[in-house]
Amino acid sequence: MYSQDSISGRRRGRSEPTAEMLSGLACSVCGADFRQAHDGEEAVVSHRDDKQLLACHGTCARMATGSVTGLDEPPLPLAERMRRHVPPPP
Ligand SMILES: [Zn+2]
Region (Disordered) spans which residues (predicted)? Predict the structure, then answer.
């Protein structure tokens, strides 16, 4: 029923971050939305282009970097990440 194209097009590999993850608005490991979180619950764990990839402080950061605090780098303020976030086209 499904063509090969639609199957591969729909597949969302876990290694492919969403727009929210790329903007630092969601955990790049578990996908938790940082817009609901308190300050200080996210840690920088990686970079993609010129953006920070964040993960939850603790378990997720350790999965991504081996350290519960991630990279030794402060994340951008949430307000700034929100401002830079460009939602994907529908
Ligand atoms: Zn997480």
Answer: 66-90
